[in-house]
Design a protein that fits this description.
The protein is mainly α and 63 residues long. The protein contains two helices and no strands. The protein is elongated.
Amino acid sequence: MIETFTTNLKSTNTMEANQKVAENLENHEIMFYDSLRADLDAIQMTPKDGTIENILTYSSNLR
């Protein structure tokens, strides 16, 4: 069987475009995280001592 194909001269341009999209995506992800950071810090909770004891008791009963 013979396979025929044509070369794509735009492949280097496509690779460059993909790299630019990746760079923009990284910056976009950083901006997204920065916008949520305050909200994430606000919902961070410190559990009560009784809650920690309950979790440890439950996990030790599973052994």
